[in-house]
Amino acid sequence: MIEVNHLSKYYGPVTAIRDLSFNVAQGEILGFLGPNGAGKTTTMRILTGFMPASSGRAVVAGYDVFAQALEVRQRVGYLPENIPLYREMTVSSYLRFVAEAKGITRRERTRKVGEVMELCGVHEMERRLIGNLSKGYRQRVGLAQALLNDPPVLILDEPTVGLDPRQIIDIRQTIKNLRHNHTVILSTHILPEVSMTCDRVVIINGGQVVAVDTPDNLTERTQPYRSIYLEVQGPEEAVLAHLQGLPGVLTVAKNGANPSGAAVYTLSTTKERDMRADVARAIVQQGWQLLELRAVRLSLEEVFVQLVTEEGEAHA
Amino acid sequence: MRSIYAVFKREVKAYFTLPIAYVMMGGLLFIVGWLYYLSFRWFLGVSFEAMRNPMMASDLDMSSMVVGATISTIGVVSVFTLPLLTMRLWAEEKRSGTVELLLTFPLRDSSIVLGKFLAGLAVYVVLLLLSLLYPLLAGLYTHLDPGPILAGYLGTFLLGATLFAFGFLCSTWTENQIVACAIAWAGFLFFWLIGHAADFAGSDLSKVLTQLSFAKHHENFAKGVIETQDVAYFVLFTVFCLFLTLRSIESTRWRG
Lengths: 316, 256
Hints:
The complex is a heterodimer of chains A (316) and B (256).
Chain A: E1 2-11, E2 14-24, E3 29-33, H1 40-47, E4 55-60, E5 63-64, H2 69-75, E6 76-79, H3 91-101, H4 106-120, H5 135-147, E7 153-157, H6 165-178, E8 183-187, H7 191-197, E9 200-205, E10 208-213, H8 215-222, E11 226-233, H9 236-245, E12 249-257, E13 263-269, H10 276-285, E14 289-296, H11 300-315
Parallel strand pairs in A: 3-8, 3-9, 6-7, 7-8
Antiparallel strand pairs in A: 1-2, 1-4, 4-5, 9-10, 11-13, 11-14, 12-13
Helix pairs in contact in A: 3-4, 4-5, 8-11
Chain B: H1 2-17, H2 20-52, H3 54-57, H4 62-86, H5 88-96, H6 98-102, H7 109-131, H8 133-139, H9 146-171, H10 177-197, H11 203-212, H12 214-222, H13 228-255
Helix pairs in contact in B: 1-7, 2-4, 2-7, 4-7, 4-9, 4-10, 4-12, 7-9, 7-13, 9-10, 9-12, 9-13, 10-11, 12-13
């Protein structure tokens, strides 16, 4: 649905993005991550047809974003980062203007505007001036305008920033519900949001793609070894020595105790094999009590920081 | 056409939702009304004089002496007030960031430019229609020749369109409405007063400067004379400014 091939954009001497390439399949929700100034907004602006790229090609819904910009804009719903709306208009008059600008016929307009207001939960605010709305409601109006002509592609730049936790859950749910009929690119700084909402992640840094994968694969790939969390009731010295002696265990560290007094250990093991069954068996065979055992995975934050730092160091 | 109308409607609504159109219309009508009152009183004084001097009475003509002068006044006052209408059209869109959404709607840049331009011009036309009250009032007391009045209004409309297109272009250059207004004022005054500079220039340069002046081209209309060169000047100036506005918006896209 979206193909980005060797896209670059220069603002005078400043390179915003360099040789960026990735694809997004139909119906997919793609998380777009990167530190501030990485080029996320520039990429999104190019994909929405707002600005042309300096070089490279991007195709959205089968249309070239430069040569067929109008066709692309007809098929893309865009929510920019700072939700720029006309403050002097009421919610319903603004949405009616956007509907008209997007070519929705007069007969369809009232129904469509009603639908998106219902979907985004702004029905009770329809007569209020946008300038008087809270940030959360303005965000919803922004999302409503993006959804108005039922576009196959949605590009959302930080759609949950500045919202309270309940609003964040609501907006996330709304985005998840769009999954089947829309292809979504979602940029965010809230990484758990990506794990919860997105099928795949593109991480960019310094205007270049650092990684493209599913959140799970990224974690798997970035982690240099496997980690196991363990709570065991038993003689600490003996437990430590025994675990250390198991083949495939790289390091064992004791990390205090749980509230009931059982010692907590963190094991790092080789990446090649899942050692959880071996560790469980070894503890039980010794007659110690195994209270908890689970694999520890890197959080997406850790993956992100690791990838972005590695890339930064490589450039340095 | 649909997209031009969508933008046009939004802009006209915005003018009348915000206080700017009312302030501008009220200000212009008050100033023109006051000057109209003064010229009407002056005309009355002259008329009383003429009662004692029948030779002079034949030269008295209310159409040109009061109404024509009022139409010229509308032109001069427009130079000072029109930037108030044009300054927000692009500068405010840029400052608030709404230009980013507007330019990602499936609208041609030319439709957006025309929609906004025509909306501002429509407000100016409403203002001109309201100012027709003055000639109509004068018409209650005497017979007025409609030809020169209509020619005067045509000239003032063309002048307004030209001023508007220039102010509209200035608004694309900045995010600050005050700066947009100041640039437009400077430009308006330059093209208004350039004709006076002709008096001090050599003969060839003088001709060029005269032809560039808003005031010189507007003068003929106020006298009731419609010259093709004056119409062509205003129309070409307007079209050229709109063309530059379109290029300026394209440049905004490239620069992001």
